[in-house]
């Protein structure tokens, strides 16, 4: 199971037959395992890492530090849920240190995000403070280097 | 240059007697094609892990640009000794038993020159790495080929060796895990060879450059870790394959004091020392490179299973290789000789691989395929080979 996850983590589009060959198992077994992993929510989704800038699409990403007043019984969880349910919010973490939640937000423009933070995020009850940091240039995202110049420089045939 | 006469008669007879490496034969054709998938590359497709590269860059910034001790930096020799003690429970004294070389290639050359007298015979199980024969001849020795067989999964046995021993035999040169076959020797196989070496009082040169690249439950065994074998073994290893450091040219030899001293003597007059930058990188590889190496090995293992499965389905017989990153299928069902097969496959389907006869006469009828290339390319190459057989198979 672990090896299937490792293979899919780096390439979610790997054909089942190929995975089966690599693990010396039948396609049916691999398919069943993957189904189970999906059902158990071990595999959450299959995403594509896209360099939108290269495509010509301007998107703006911001990292928002959020301070909260924790609530009785549920702590930060209820407010976190109110925040992560928004489509604009791509990622949310509960953090140690000087703030409580970190949210990563994507929008079409700076104004878009500023508007979202001002009208939706900071108005949630229990949110005491937000600080927005806009991303200027991505170098590496989810393990993928944006402009990787490294390539295969080997000769065609070597001993 | 316009030359007024032919100078080839002035070349040394021993150099003239050596054929150029057969491995580069298709290089020129392949180099001109655009969409070649190469299974002919005998080196990792990974780039050296960043932590290793970074340590070299840092070393240059700090001004590490000088010669080192002939034997190599003490720090590196200590790391190598520590590594062998941890992994194989063999103890080498970094002061006297280890020599850092410019790749295993240099180490092999030094070992041969250090121990061979003119006419001494060297037993060389084949198929084997392309330089074994040449290094023996250049050192004044006589290479004696000992064929191994597919039905033994290309392992060598004492019975096979006995047929080739004479009173001039001095050295047994083995290379397991093996390039080109991917064969490994298990403990029992090696113990039998050790007994044979003792019986005939042979030195054993053991090229273990692929030692870290073994798959399955059997761990690699250093030949010198076998009972009574350490002092008669010259163990050769390096960083090229395990740490994806081929271009750095860094390896080492380990053995008894007298032989290492003799090898050091040649090394100091011909090479002086291995490049300091590569030595710094090698130290980092041993200190912090293991987890990257393990990751690469796990990836080779998956590719190995994929390509073995692929050839089995295509119908080219092969045994499951347990080491290095090569598979050595038998291509006789195609009706071709191996050289012809490699050439026609390259022309028709743009897949490069190396004919088995480049690694010795008994390699004929096989081809060496390296799986040190991406999964996508391996899958595509297998599809093309299948297509080639469907269209061009001789009946």
Helix and strand content put the structural class of chain B at alpha/beta
Q: How many discrete domains of chain A?
A: 2
Order of helices and strands of chain A: HHHHEHEEHEEE
Question: Would you state the CATH class of the largest domain in chain A?
Answer: Alpha Beta
Full CATH superfamily name of the largest domain in chain A: Lrp/AsnC effector binding domain/regulation of amino acid metabolism (RAM) domain
Question: What is the topological layout?
Answer:
The complex is a heterodimer of chains A (159) and B (395).
Chain A (H helix, E strand, L loop, with lengths): L1 H9 L5 H8 L3 H13 L12 H4 L4 E9 L8 H8 L4 E6 L6 E7 L2 H12 L5 E8 L5 E2 L2 E2 L14
Antiparallel strand pairs in A: 1-3, 1-4, 2-3, 5-6
Helix pairs in contact in A: 2-3
Chain B lengths: L12 H4 L10 H6 L4 E2 L11 H12 L12 H15 L9 E4 L1 H13 L5 E6 L4 H8 L3 E6 L10 H5 L6 E6 L12 H13 L3 E5 L25 E6 L12 E4 L2 H14 L5 H13 L1 H25 L11 E2 L10 H12 L1 E2 L1 E2 L11 E4 L4 H18 L3
Parallel strand pairs in B: 1-10, 3-4, 3-5, 5-6, 6-7
Antiparallel strand pairs in B: 2-8, 7-8, 9-12, 11-12
Helix pairs in contact in B: 3-10, 4-10, 5-6, 5-9, 11-13
Question: Which characteristics define this entry?
Answer:
heterodimer; A: 159 residues; alpha+beta; Alpha-Beta Plaits; 4-stranded antiparallel β-sheet; B: alpha/beta; Aspartate Aminotransferase, domain 1; Aspartate Aminotransferase, domain 2; 2 domains; 7-stranded mixed β-sheet; 3-stranded antiparallel β-sheet; 12 strands; 40% helix; globular
Describe the structure.
The complex is a heterodimer of chains A (159) and B (395). Chain A is of the alpha+beta class and 159 residues long. Chain A has 2 domains: 2-39; 52-138, Alpha-Beta Plaits (2-Layer Sandwich). Chain A is built from 6 helices and 6 strands; from the N terminus they run ααααβαββαβββ. In chain A, the strands form 2 sheets. In chain A, strands 2-3-1-4 form a 4-stranded antiparallel β-sheet. In chain A, helix 2 (16-23) crosses helix 3 (27-39). Chain B is of the alpha/beta class. Chain B folds into 2 domains: 12-48 and 292-392, Aspartate Aminotransferase, domain 1 (Alpha-Beta Complex), CATH 3.90.1150.10; 50-288, Aspartate Aminotransferase, domain 2 (3-Layer(aba) Sandwich), CATH 3.40.640.10. Chain B has 13 helices and 12 strands. Chain B is globular and about 60 Å long. The termini of chain B are far apart. Chain A binds chain B through residues 3, 6-7, 14, 18, 21-24, 150, 152, 154-159, and chain B through 21, 23-24, 26-27, 30-31, 36, 38, 40-43, 45, 47, 129-131, 179, 298, 302-303, 305-306, 309-310, 352, 354, 375, 379.
């Amino acid at each position: 199971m672990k090896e299937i996850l490792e293979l899919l983590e780096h390439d979610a589009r790997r054909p089942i037959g190929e995975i089966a060959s690599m693990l010396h198992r039948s396609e049916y077994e691999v398919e069943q395992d993957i189904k189970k992993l999906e059902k158990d929510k071990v595999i959450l989704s299959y995403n594509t890492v896209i360099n939108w800038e290269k495509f010509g699409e301007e998107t703006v990403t911001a990292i928002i530090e959020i301070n909260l007043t924790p609530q009785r019984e549920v702590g930060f969880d209820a407010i976190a849920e109110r925040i992560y349910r928004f489509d604009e919010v791509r990622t949310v973490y509960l953090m140690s240190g000087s703030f409580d939640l970190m949210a990563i937000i994507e929008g079409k423009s700076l104004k878009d995000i500023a508007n979202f933070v001002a009208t939706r995020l900071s108005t949630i009850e229990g949110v005491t403070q937000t600080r927005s940091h806009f991303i200027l240039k991505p170098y590496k995202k989810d393990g993928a280097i944006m402009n990787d110049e490294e390539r295969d420089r080997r000769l065609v045939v070597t001993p | 240059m316009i030359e007024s006469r032919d100078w080839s008669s002035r070349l040394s007879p021993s150099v003239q007697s050596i054929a150029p490496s057969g491995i580069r034969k298709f290089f020129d054709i392949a180099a001109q094609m655009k969409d070649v998938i190469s299974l002919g590359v005998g080196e990792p497709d990974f780039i050296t892990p960043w932590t290793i590269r970074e340590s070299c860059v840092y070393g240059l910034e700090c001004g590490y640009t000088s010669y080192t001790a002939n034997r190599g930096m003490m720090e590196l020799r200590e790391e190598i000794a520590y590594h062998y003690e941890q992994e194989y429970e063999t103890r080498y004294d970094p002061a006297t038993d280890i020599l850092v070389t410019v790749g295993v290639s240099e180490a092999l050359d030094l070992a041969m020159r250090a121990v061979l007298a003119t006419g001494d015979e060297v037993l060389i199980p084949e198929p084997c790495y392309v330089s074994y024969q040449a290094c023996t001849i250049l050192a004044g020795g006589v290479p004696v080929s000992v064929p191994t067989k597919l039905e033994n999964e290309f392992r060598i046995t004492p019975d096979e060796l006995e047929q080739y021993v004479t009173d001039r035999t001095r050295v047994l040169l083995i290379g397991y895990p093996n390039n080109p076959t991917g064969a490994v020797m298990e403990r029992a196989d090696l113990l039998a060879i050790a007994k044979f070496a003792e019986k005939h009082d042979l030195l054993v040169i053991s090229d273990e450059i692929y030692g870290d690249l073994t798959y399955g439950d059997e761990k690699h065994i250093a030949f010198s870790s076998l009972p009574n074998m350490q002092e008669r073994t010259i163990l050769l290893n390096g960083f090229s394959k395990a740490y994806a450091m081929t271009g750095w040219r860094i390896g080492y030899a380990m053995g008894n004091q007298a032989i290492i001293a003799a090898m050091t003597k040649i090394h100091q007059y011909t090479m002086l020392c291995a490049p300091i930058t590569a030595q710094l990188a090698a130290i980092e590889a041993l200190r912090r490179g293991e987890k990257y190496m393990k990751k690469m090995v796990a990836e080779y293992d998956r590719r190995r299973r994929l390509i073995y499965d692929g050839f089995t389905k295509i119908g080219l017989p092969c045994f499951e290789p347990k080491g290095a990153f090569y598979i050595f299928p038998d291509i006789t069902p195609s009706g071709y000789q191996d050289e012809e097969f490699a050439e026609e496959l390259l022309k028709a389907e743009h897949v490069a691989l190396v004919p088995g006869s480049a690694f010795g006469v008994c390699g004929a009828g096989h081809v060496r395929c390296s799986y040190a290339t991406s999964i996508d390319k391996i899958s595509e190459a297998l599809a093309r080979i299948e297509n080639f057989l469907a269209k061009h198979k001789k009946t």
